[in-house]
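JOB MANIFEST
job_type = single_chain_structure
chain_count = 1
residues = 896
[input]
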Amino acid sequence: MTASSSRITFIEHELDGFHQSLAVYRQQVGAWYSQALDKVSHAADLPSLLGMDQVLRFGGSQVSVSLSDDNFSTVARCPAGGLLEIESKFESVYDVPLGSIPVEVIGQDDGSSTVVMLDEQGKGSHHCVAGGRYQVRVQGGVSAEQVDALFSSYDGLTNDLEAWLRGQWDGFKPHWQASTASAIGSGLLAGSWAAISGVWDSISLVQDILQDPAKHIERLGAQASELAELARTAPQVMEQAMLLASDEAALYLILRTAMVWLSALPPSQVAGKAAEIVARVVVSLLIDLLIAVVLTIALQGAGIAYLGLRLAKYGAQVVEAAIDLVKGIFTIIKSFMGAVSRYKTVAVRGVVSGLKKGGMQMPWGARQNTVIRHKEPVDDVPSSAKNPNGDAAASADKTATNGCPVSMVTGEELLTLTDGELDGLLPFAWTRVYRTSAVEVDCGLGFGWSHSLAQRLSVIGESVVWTDHENRSTTFALPSVSRPAISNSLAEAAIYLGSSPDELVLAQDSRFYHFRDGLLTSISDAYDNRLRISRDYSGRIQRLDNGVGRGLLLRYDRDHIVAVDYQVQRAEEYQEYVWVTELNVVSYRYDDAWRLIEATNAVGESERYRYDDQQVILERELAGGASFFWEWERSGKAARCVRHWASFSQMDTRYVWDDNGCVTVHNADGSQEVYVHDQRARLVQRIDPDGAEHFKSYDDKGRLTVEQDPLGAVTAYQYDEAGRLITLFPGDDEPTSYEHDNGFVRVVRRGDAVWKYQRNDQGDITRKTDPDGNYTDYSYNKHGKLTGVWHPDNSSQRLTWNERGQLTEEQLANGGVRRYRYDDLGRQVAVEDEHGALTQYQWDAVGRLLKVIQPGGATREFSYNPYGKITAERDELGRVTRYEYADGLHLISRRI
């Protein structure tokens, strides 16, 4: 298919679907007015066509409320003269009325109700009893017929715009059939979603310009003063423009029309350099087109003058094309404005009460709530991860635990220990996990234990089972060419087809795990920083290599790991680079049954383990001498802890289990805690020792939907089809909404405050804009390291990194430069500040700071116990402070 035929197909597809532009929007509006939705859904689905804010003034105070709030009320008293004057107007620096609407005046003392029709100036009055309490309701109820009447206007506008577009296309299509060139539409076609979302982020600018034209004189030029004069001399005309500017449904139809029209423009009209320029600034161009249409409604000719001013820098071709669009749809929009009374009937509603200068004032301001979301295809097959005993199990760090730690879901031990790390562009922690339900599984560290690289895939029919580094098994549907990416929302992971035919990729927590023939071959991130795994002739993992001369070597006795070494790649004399061991990170010792009984770190500190005859752990002795003990009910992989205590008196806990997911924890001080989980290992209730209760509920994909704290405050969460949080309802506070693009948060809204984020392809923020319009820019190198920050005050920071991902130089906002140095193990050994002063650091083999050498040569030294706690500190004057700890643990009992 040629580029021209592809463009023709695209345009005709857009035209065929144009009549459905507001289908979803109408469905939401209808649902809102039918009151069929609960309070949470009501707030989430509120279309901003109807989400106008109202400023209530009472005396000298003022408060803003949303018309979606059904409960606000400030009762006003009738003035002494007995006449309550009512005025309705747009929130603007000028008095632009919002008139010809009925309001209901309700007597709070006698229950009377009187309907007052405001005139075209938005004014009306009501005879009241002096001192009596009154409330004014604007459109207390909206009928389905009124909503239908409103949308019949939109239907007419949609049909008229589609007919105009088809007429334009009839003239454009022959040019495309005869052309091989590229025009404006090339840029739009490639980035139409980005263009739509970009425009919608700035949609409030249209209303802002009409509220205060003088504030936008740089953008409007001479039209600023003309609009201000119009607001003063012909407020009814300005009312029409402001209604259009607040009508997001109509604006969306205009936007869609402009996008399709620009995409359809043939090369004969706008091509070459002009097309390239417009494609790059399409968002700005579309915003200007919307503004021009609204300005033309307010002041005929203003829109064309505005385009001439704004688009002159793009050349005459672009200006002429844009003017043609505005002229083409002006008549259609002007005809649509005849239906403005239907819009006011539905949009302007709520309760208002408040007096100012003896009158009731109701200023209205448009509020943007409509969110345009890119509907992403989601292929989700939810399935809970399971432990080797077949119980649903979340990852250890997301499991409610108690003690050393015991899972409050299954009763098994989840001992997680990090023995060392590999630094680099993609840092890696060598971590091992003991899971009681895995006592029949040996991954190379003895029964019950697993480690960070002990992952494998098994293909069973049309399914793939992933056994992760915690010995949990998660089932996925097998990816194929027709289903290349499949998620598992309950397991918070996804599986993909890899770059080669025999590769499968697992994604979880911003890491990608690459497998071939079921074996883990590498780990990568979004920037393709990669850790590579090499194996020996028998398939055992031999080395983890970070690609920049650093690695972890695994040494074995038969199939069991006996040591992990930190290695550096060096060039020996006249030889190729070879791996040299810098440090023995950890070593392991086993008994005759290949059970792990001892782990020794780089400085010779050891902790030991004891088990029963089914490999269920009974005792853990720390390097400092303290011990933990377990007592179990049931046996083997089904064992469940009933008592957990230590060699020190503070810890002695008992657990009482039932078979319905509930466990009661009896603490040493006599207090009790209760944990309740559902069948998918999700915490649904917790009772604290003081009796405070917490409740949680989830949807069928494992996502938290509602939680209640001990004070009764309820927080609710709403998600899109891809499982991303889109709205947070924090009890009585204002909701926070989240818009996503390509899986990352793009916009955050809370009330009138809006935070915007631009990101690179990897998801890192490149620009952050706060609610005041201040923005901060960020840049990154090819490895994802932050290289620059530009602040709103025009100050900046620059950062330089070496190939190992270490920060070597930092240029501060004041122009000063700091420099950093590291040793072969990746530890920072020197910092030179912006004044040239050098501070040096010395570390022990497990990364504990031993000495600090100050710029003047003075030193400070530290000593530690096996728990990593400081036992002695020698300061710069040679004075020594010693620390003693209660029961030989971590709490300081005496300072000498």
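[summary]
The chain is about 20% helix and 35% strand.
Residues 31-74, 181-191, 348-364 have pLDDT under 50 and may be disordered.
exit_status = 0
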